Automatic annotation (TrEMBL):
SMART domains: GRAM (SM00568), TBC (SM00164). It comes from Drosophila gunungcola (fruit fly). Residues 1184-1210, 1225-1247 are annotated as: Disordered. GO terms for molecular function: calcium ion binding; GTPase activator activity. This is TBC1 domain family member 9. PANTHER family: PROTEIN VASCULAR ASSOCIATED DEATH 1, CHLOROPLASTIC. One of its GO terms (biological process) is system process. Keywords: GTPase activation, Repeat.
Length: 1297
């Protein structure tokens, strides 16, 4: 890139010349792109220690007779710098050669480069060339995506193993990164802001602690304070992002929101300036109670004339798009808020040689003058105010849609339901009113009043009922939101009234009778109706909050003194500004402030803190106190007084009152022995607090007669709280503590979730309690990393490879998962990407590269076909692979190499030459695995692998059986009763096969005890009803064959019972079969049915059924690992030769690519066993003969089946003839897929496909190989593997997504 020409006096030995010309030289930084020699190490170390970090390439301009050179271009890559060199070669070389004067050459070159620099940076971000180089190096070193924006970098020292290492601390929007290069040794560290648990600074050292108890210390000579504040701010943004949107954890920043009218020239990076403006804007809004959209544009030093004291007070003028504000240098001395829309004129005022110079006078629409003097730059201020006034937009009420709802706004309920106070109370109210009117005369009224300590004193004394609405609206800031959104409340009310079956509305209606029931206003339809409209409107305005208990209590108080619309905006200001995140899920804001209160008690009441912490009292009291601002624990008339102070002071008053109450009860609390006793002490004290200046008559206060002994006046409580804690507890202190406890609270949520889940799975046979905790931690970290990556790629419109998507989940499942328990477990479920990463990083089977074992295991474990595994499934999958159970692991490995887990496409791909490059390999994998036309190989089409009753319940099987039944005309007595079962996937029409489409159903947790419904087949809606009753999950796609049709049980008349033994393997005798089975061999040709008939709960009767799509009986390997020995009770298909060869290759890879003589002999024995299993008798072209039983004298085969075919019933023979003819017509000319064998040849397709081995033969043979048994019995310490994975992430090693 072209840069502003920089003069260089001395040549540097750190650069190597790559290209020369008469006036230019292209140089490369020594050590860049070279093998790390001693010189390169010295240069790298120098750059790291001295914080130079130049671009690796540059172009210099130098005349032959001059010792001065000019740097005119830099480049991050060689291609980039070569493009600039080629431009010089094409445009300047010939021109400069024609010039005779070297000074002329230099002047012309510099002017030309400056022109290029200006031209290329017209639409740039405003960043300097050095910062662009720094950003490129940051992304290159830490492999960050383009969307991860660098904020700034600082020179820092990191101590590792007691050795200080100088390097660079990079701070981006989502990460703190550190890089150091010292004499050939690199150190990289990556820390996500969301995982920081503690941030502190001592002098020039910043201390960071993460959630996995890793600590980091970074020492900086310069800018340590700036770096610390920046880390605090970005951590706060990261945690808030997790609170508001856990599914999008990446912090984003829109720089356009912080653009200023007059951009100041600054050397700081643009994003750093924006974040600084963001922080200052937040402080600006909190202090002056302004809307969230206000962004500070700047501040300027000035004095303001205060007419009540007749003097000038120094301070600062703050400007934002809609407000001009002033704040004095002396705390709380005076402040002013002037809305821009009320400014009528801005004029200069010159008093000659008087001491008050540079004056301006601002006159508002109410003809109130505000005079400012000693303005540092008066012309700039007037210009800015003029620009802002030109841009001001005054919203007007828009025409809104009319709804068929009749209602009217309710005025303040105190006007309708008047309380009859005593004459003494009325007189006190009038006296307060007179004091407030006198204050308005001196200090002004409305938004633009002078806010001084006098108004604080008046509020502490109490606000008259007539003024509460006005004062509350002004000091809460709700008036600004109302004026900026005219007509919005009416829209929300009428739209909310049209919403039916809303959960929030049901919750609101349930809590309405409990909202201030002691007041007669909420025993009437007017009060209840207004409260309902306010709460429903806000639930519609802020769906993230919706409705939370306690909102009804505070809203009812608002409605007593404010009209309906004002009460709504008061509630909005309370939930969004004054008490942020209080009313969200888990009341996280209140729990954060609970931690703040706990630390304040430790600071100010140290002797009491330990005792309260032991009793756990603070956790019990603070939520109820905070959410209702003491309204639920203190009498209504007393809590009003606290509410008056709350709208002026904010959350500060809540902490002050809480500390004062705890301090007054110090002695009694120290004597308490349990939490119940302590709570009773505080409850009795709070119920005794009263307000002598606002006594409600007993007739209108049901609690009056039940109230206990009076303990203290609310006026004394507030006064004492201000006196003891008012100076020490500031808004800045509260925000600092909130930042700290926001981290700790979110971490505590994770810890509580982990404890609950570990308790549920602590009895698992694989992992200890500590290992479960570590596994949950790494799941949370990996899911967060994946979500961040996906979010950033979505912004770049470059999403990850798509996983197959299922039809939306059933309502019953959605309702179940909406609960708290469902959410807790859902947080630790893993999708395919996370599971594959954990499998690759944590298990010993990661060595297997010929077959993607992780993908096969995920598909086998995903019982419901939802594309995710819960924590229990993950434990079983990873636990078995990492365990010492060699036999179960061998069985699992055998199953993972069976179809459909190991497809023919993958077998063929494994035989083809591999792509030469890694990118080609990844591209080929994604293209074939995620976009294959054979959708039956996808995860949705795979049946449940662990439901033991799957074969008996499979809908696709029943449909196919019914289809065969229709073709053959066989009565329901021969096959299972099909009249109750709807046809879901096939019908008798041949065109259904020609469409090459089918519907597959994957088992969900059954809602009924039975598999079918008697009424299901009698309705048109039978199929859907059957699905709902069984909780099945539907996946619809286009298939190249109809394969996963399960098995049907059949009991023909006179069927015999056969038994047999596996002679070749020497296995024990198999269990006797209860029924004879209808057996059909799988043919993989287009539109042919495979594995139509197989065993449901017993070992397969046909030894050649090697392509089973129904793996329903294999789940015992994962669900019941301890019962795996009872293999005879489960149906495991036999394996073909091509699958077996890949299985053996996987074993060799797992063993470390070492095959000894014993393994070679076992391999040859298994090949021979497979050859001995080949059937010699002829078979049909498409199906094996029907084996219904032979004579009693003949011996069965290895699986207990008769060796000769029995006589077939006429109807059965006609069945297969008709079905075969239909399939042949549907598919046209049938294709025959020939499977090639690695070490043997076959003369026919049937013979080749007949080679198979059973799992008994495989296990019996492999267990004789000592090296394999030792390798599979070696335990894997999952804790060590997790620590290694976390270490890799911290050291910025590649991520396997």
């Amino acid at each position: 890139m072209w840069i502003q020409p920089k003069e260089l006096l001395l040549p540097s030995a750190f650069w190597i010349a790559e290209m020369h010309s008469r006036y230019f030289v292209l140089q490369k930084r020594r050590g860049h792109g070279e093998s790390r020699g001693f010189g390169s190490m010295l240069v790298g170390t120098y750059d790291s220690v001295m914080n130079t970090k130049p671009a690796p390439y540059r172009i210099l301009h130098q005349t032959p007779s001059s010792e001065v050179s000019y740097e005119i271009a830099i480049g991050i890559t060689q291609d980039e710098i070569v493009r600039d060199w080629e431009w010089l070669q094409s445009n300047l070389f010939k021109v400069l050669d024609e010039m005779e004067n070297e000074d002329e050459v230099t002047n012309f070159t510099i002017c030309k480069i400056q022109s290029l620099y200006t031209q290329n940076n017209q639409d740039d971000t405003g960043e300097s060339a050095d910062f662009k180089v720094m950003t490129s190096q940051f992304r290159q070193i830490f492999k960050m995506p383009e969307e991860e924006r660098l904020v700034n970098s600082y020179s820092a020292t990191y101590v590792k193993n007691k050795i200080p290492r100088q390097g660079q601390l990079y701070i981006s929007l989502n990460h703190v990164c550190y890089y150091s290069y010292m004499l050939g040794q690199e150190i990289k560290r990556i820390i996500r802001f969301a995982e920081l648990e503690d941030i502190s600074r001592n002098a020039n050292t910043i201390y960071l602690k993460t959630t996995n108890n890793m600590t980091y210390n970074f020492t900086m000579l310069f800018n340590a304070s700036e770096a610390h504040l920046l880390i605090e701010q970005l951590n706060k943004m990261a945690i808030q992002q997790l609170i508001h949107d856990p599914d999008s954890p990446v912090v984003d920043h829109d720089p356009s929101n912080f653009a200023r009218l007059g951009n100041k020239t600054s050397k700081k990076p643009v994003l750093l300036r924006d974040l600084t403006a963001r922080q200052k804007s937040e402080e600006f809004r909190i202090y002056f109670r302004l809307p969230q959209s206000e962004i500070i544009d700047g501040k300027i030093k000035a004095n303001i004339w205060t007419p009540y004291s007749k003097r000038f007070n120094s301070g600062f003028i703050y400007l934002s798009p809609n407000f001009l504000c002033f704040r004095s240098d002396v705390k709380d001395l005076v402040s002013v808020v002037i809305p821009m829309k009320t400014i009528k004129s801005v004029e200069k005022k010159d008093d000659g040689q008087q001491r008050f110079e540079n004056q301006i006078v601002i006159i508002t629409s109410e003809n109130v003058p505000f005079m400012f003097a000693h303005i540092v730059d008066r012309d700039v201020l007037i210009s800015k105010i003029t620009d802002l006034l030109a841009r001001i937009h005054v919203p007007v009420s828009r025409e809104r849609a009319k709804y068929d709802i009749s209602w009217s706004k309710q005025t303040a309920l105190m006007n309708t339901f008047k309380t009859q106070f005593s004459a003494e109370i009325v007189q006190k109210q009038e006296e307060k009113m007179l004091r407030w009117e006198a204050h308005f005369r001196d200090f002004g009224r409305g938004i633009g009043m002078f806010r001084t300590t006098d108004v604080i004193n008046l509020i502490v004394e109490g606000i008259p009922d007539k003024l509460r609405q006005e004062i509350w609206l002004i000091f809460s800031g709700a008036i600004h939101d109302k004026e900026m959104n005219p007509g919005l409340y009416e829209d929300l009310v009428e739209k909310a009234a049209c919403i039916k079956n809303c959960f929030s509305h049901d919750e609101i209606d349930r809590d309405l009778p409990r909202s201030l029931p002691e007041h007669p206003a909420f025993q009437s339809t007017d009060g209840i109706g207004a409260l309902r409209r306010v709460l429903q409107a806000y639930a519609l305005r802020n769906p993230q909050v919706g409705y939370c208990q306690a909102m009804n209590i505070v809203s009812s108080v608002f409605l007593l003194f404010c009209d309906e619309e004002n009460a709504f905006w008061m509630l909005a200001s309370l939930c969004e500004n004054l008490l942020p995140d209080y009313y969200k899920d888990k009341v996280v804001g209140a729990q954060i402030d609970q931690g703040v209160l706990n630390e304040l008690v430790e600071t100010h009441l140290a002797d009491l803190h330990g005792h309260l912490e032991q009793l756990g009292v603070i956790k019990m009291i603070s939520i109820s106190w905070f959410l209702t601002i003491f309204m639920s624990v203190i009498s209504y008339e007393s809590s009003l007084h606290i509410l008056d102070c709350f709208f002026y002071e904010g959350a500060k008053i809540i902490f002050m009152i809480s500390l004062q109450i705890i301090e007054w009860n110090r002695e009694k609390l120290l004597q308490c022995q349990d939490d119940g006793e302590a709570m009773l002490v505080l409850q009795n004290y709070l119920e005794g607090i009263y307000n002598p200046e606002y006594q409600v008559p007993p007739a209108t206060d049901k609690r009056k007669m039940e109230r206990k002994i009076q303990t203290q006046t609310v006026q004394t409580l507030i006064h004492e709280a201000y006196t003891k804690f008012g100076e020490e507890i500031t808004q800045q202190r509260i925000e600092e503590l909130r930042n700290k406890h926001r981290r700790l609270t979110m971490r505590q949520f994770d810890i509580d979730n982990e404890k609950t889940i570990v308790k549920a799975y602590v009895q698992n046979p694989y992992f200890s309690r500590n290992e479960l905790h570590k596994l949950l931690t790494i799941i949370r970290e990996e899911k967060h990393a994946l979500k961040s990556l996906q979010q950033q790629q979505q912004k770049a419109q470059c999403p990850l490879s798509e996983m197959p998507q299922l039809v939306p989940q059933s309502p019953s499942r959605a309702i179940h998962e909406a609960g708290a328990s469902g959410d807790r477990h859902e947080a630790y479920s893993v999708n395919y990407e996370v599971f594959h990463t954990l499998f690759t990083e944590l298990t010993p089977w990661r060595k297997c590269v010929s077959v993607d074992i992780g993908e096969k295991l995920f598909r086998l474990t995903d019982k419901r076909g939802t594309g995710s595994l819960d924590f229990g499934q993950l434990i079983n999958a990873l636990g078995l692979v990492c365990s010492t159970k060699s036999m179960e692991k061998l069985k699992l490995l055998f199953v993972l190499h069976l179809p459909p887990l190991l497809s023919k496409a993958e077998i063929e791909r494994s035989r083809r030459p591999r792509p030469r490059t890694k990118d080609d390999a990844e591209e080929a994998f994604e293209a074939e695995d995620f976009f294959d036309n054979d959708a039956s190989e996808s995860m949705e089409a795979l049946p449940s692998p662990s439901d033991h009753n799957f074969d008996a319940d499979d809908f696709a099987l029943i449909s196919a059986t019914q289809h065969l039944h229709n073709l053959a005309g066989i009565s329901g007595n021969t096959f299972m009763d099909l009249s109750r079962t709807p046809n879901l996937s096939l019908n008798s029409n041949t065109s259904s096969l020609a469409q090459r489409s089918s519907t597959f159903y994957v088992d969900m947790p059954a809602l009924q005890g039975t598999a079918t419904s008697t009424d299901a087949g009698r309705d048109e809606d039978g199929p859907q009803r059957g699905l709902r009753q069984q909780g099945r999950y539907e996946s619809i796609d286009t298939f190249s064959d109809i394969s996963d049709l399960g098995a049907a049980r059949m009991t023909p008349p006179g069927a015999g019972v056969g038994t047999g033994a596996d002679v070749a393997a020497g296995a024990q005798a198999a269990a006797a079969a209860d029924h004879m089975l209808l057996n059909v061999e799988t043919i993989s040709n287009f539109s042919q049915i495979s594995d139509l008939v197989a065993a449901t709960r017993q070992e397969r009767a046909d030894s050649t059924a090697t392509d089973s799509r129904s793996l329903g009986s294999l789940g015992y390997l994962l669900d019941q690992p301890d019962e795996g020995a009872s293999c005879s009770q489960h149906s495991i298909p036999h394996m073909r030769k091509e699958n077996f060869q890949l299985l053996w290759r996987s074993i060799i890879e797992i063993m470390g690519l070492v095959q000894d003589e014993e393994m070679q002999r076992a391999y040859e024995n298994l090949l021979e066993l497979g050859n001995s299993n080949i059937k010699k008798e002829p078979s049909l072209e498409s199906f094996t003969q029907l084996n219904l039983g032979g004579s009693g004298d003949e011996q069965p085969d290895s699986n207990g089946n008769p060796t000769t075919p029995a006589a077939e019933p006429i109807g059965t023979t006609r069945l297969f003839v008709a079905l075969e003819e239909e399939l042949r017509q549907a598919s046209g000319n049938g294709r025959t897929t020939t499977t090639s064998s690695g070490n043997s040849s076959s003369s026919s397709t049937n013979t080749s496909e007949s080679w198979h081995i059973s799992i008994s033969q495989f296990i019996a043979t492999v267990l004789t190989v000592n090296s394999i048994v030792r390798g599979f019995q070696t335990p894997i310490q999952i804790s060590e593997q997790i620590e290694q994975l976390q270490k890799k992430r911290r050291k910025c090693l590649s991520v396997n997504y």
